Amino acid sequence: MVALITQDVHARDIEQKLHDLKIQSCLDLLWQQQLRYYIEEDNVMVRQVNALIEYGYEYIGPTTRLIITPLTDKCWITITGAMHIKLGAAPSGPAGTGKTESVKALG
């Protein structure tokens, strides 16, 4: 329940920011930065900035209690960009800062 509430708050904040900045084009960078899902020719595709990744129906388990922040968004942009060019990502930083949870939530 907590994870759903925090994701709803994040989505609300992003929607408000898109509205306040009068974003009207799908080519605008603020829109492009969002993690988006599209159905293309019977496949679900994940898009973020210039990354295009086929969704592989991965399932890790119940959603985490990760609170999505602007830093989480930047981490996801980096990881999806790396996956798009067939590289991996290895988030680094102090223990307990949410690296593992961020990667799991993206999966």
Briefly summarize what is shown.
The chain has helices spanning 2-20, 29-32, 70-84, 99-106; strands spanning 36-40, 43-48, 51-54.
Q: What is the succession of H and E elements?
A: HHEEEHH
Q: How many H/I helices?
A: 4
How do the strands line up in the largest sheet? 1-2-3
* Helix coverage percent: 40-55%
Derived structural class: alpha+beta
Strand residue percentage? 5-15%
Number of E strands: 3
Radius of gyration over all CA atoms, rounded: 14 Å
Detail the poorly predicted runs: none
Major β-sheet annotation: 3 strands, antiparallel
What is the count of distinct domains? 1
Shape: globular
Termini separation: 19 Å
Average pLDDT number:
83
Task: Write structural notes for this entry.
It is a single chain. This protein has 107 residues and is α+β, with helices and mostly antiparallel strands. It has one domain. Helices cover 43% and strands 14% of the residues. The protein has helices at 2-20, 29-32, 70-84, 99-106; strands spanning 36-40, 43-48, 51-54. Strands 1-2-3 form a three-stranded antiparallel β-sheet. The longest helix is centred in the first third of the chain and has 19 residues, at 2-20. The protein is globular, with a radius of gyration of 14 Å. The model has no long low-confidence stretch (mean pLDDT 83).
